[in-house]
Amino acid sequence: MDLEELKRIQIECAKKVLQTDDFTEVRLVGGIDLTFEDPKGNPTRAWASLVVVDIKTLKKVYSHVVEGTVDFPYIPTFLAFRELPLMEKVYLSAEVKPDVVFIDGQGVAHPRGCGIASHFGVKLNCVSVGVAKSRLFGFYKEPDVRRGSWSPLTYRGRTIGAVVRTKDNTAPIFVSVGHRISLNTAIELVLKTSMYRVPEPTRLAHNHLQWYLRNSCK
């Protein structure tokens, strides 16, 4: 494993990220979630779930699960090389493709500007948003406690994401551009699809995957 080569791949990926709105309409928003048989194991059996919701109703219109083997170790800031192959598999094999995909991870809010959400968007040429539950990189001030409040996530004077309050008096989430979308639109879509702390596409993808493992996987 050559981490310097992987860093080079991430830096090249970052150069291809488009941080402007490159779409006409958003009707369907998807969320992808992964889980592992052995989170610390390598290799390990793993599953990826895609759930697509209607942006007007926030109701699930499609769900899909795939299984595979993950054979790259967990290394901070190199998450894409561990999880992207299975994410790609669930997306490409889905019968319904969302207009925007929320990824549980970082987009450009990454030390080399290409977290898993950006890597996913660039590789598959789709609109993607990083929606993470914790900060990986950058600095911020806590936003107001009211839903809809947000503060910029910055590094060296540049805004790389947003810290967004999706529910009153609840911990914020970290939103960043994945690919082919502006940060303002990403924030707008996250708030529009959030009933709880985590936006419905990724929340339902997680819930569907847990249901699948309980009921369909032996």
From TrEMBL:
<keyword id="KW-0460">Magnesium</keyword>
<keyword id="KW-0234">DNA repair</keyword>
<comment type="similarity">
    <text>Belongs to the endonuclease V family.</text>
</comment>
<dbReference type="GO" id="GO:0003727">
    <property type="term" value="F:single-stranded RNA binding"/>
</dbReference>
<dbReference type="GO" id="GO:0006281">
    <property type="term" value="P:DNA repair"/>
</dbReference>
<dbReference type="InterPro" id="IPR007581">
    <property type="entry name" value="Endonuclease-V"/>
</dbReference>
<dbReference type="GO" id="GO:0016891">
    <property type="term" value="F:RNA endonuclease activity producing 5'-phosphomonoesters, hydrolytic mechanism"/>
</dbReference>
<dbReference type="GO" id="GO:0043737">
    <property type="term" value="F:deoxyribonuclease V activity"/>
</dbReference>
<feature type="binding site">
    <location>
        <position position="104"/>
    </location>
    <ligand>
        <name>Mg(2+)</name>
    </ligand>
</feature>
<dbReference type="Pfam" id="PF04493">
    <property type="entry name" value="Endonuclease_5"/>
</dbReference>
<feature type="site" description="Interaction with target DNA">
    <location>
        <position position="74"/>
    </location>
</feature>
<keyword id="KW-0227">DNA damage</keyword>
<keyword id="KW-0963">Cytoplasm</keyword>
<protein>
    <recommendedName>
        <fullName>Endonuclease V</fullName>
        <ecNumber>3.1.21.7</ecNumber>
    </recommendedName>
</protein>
<keyword id="KW-0255">Endonuclease</keyword>
<keyword id="KW-0378">Hydrolase</keyword>
<feature type="binding site">
    <location>
        <position position="33"/>
    </location>
    <ligand>
        <name>Mg(2+)</name>
    </ligand>
</feature>
<comment type="function">
    <text>DNA repair enzyme involved in the repair of deaminated bases. Selectively cleaves double-stranded DNA at the second phosphodiester bond 3' to a deoxyinosine leaving behind the intact lesion on the nicked DNA.</text>
</comment>
<keyword id="KW-0540">Nuclease</keyword>
<dbReference type="GO" id="GO:0000287">
    <property type="term" value="F:magnesium ion binding"/>
</dbReference>
<keyword id="KW-0479">Metal-binding</keyword>
<dbReference type="GO" id="GO:0005737">
    <property type="term" value="C:cytoplasm"/>
</dbReference>
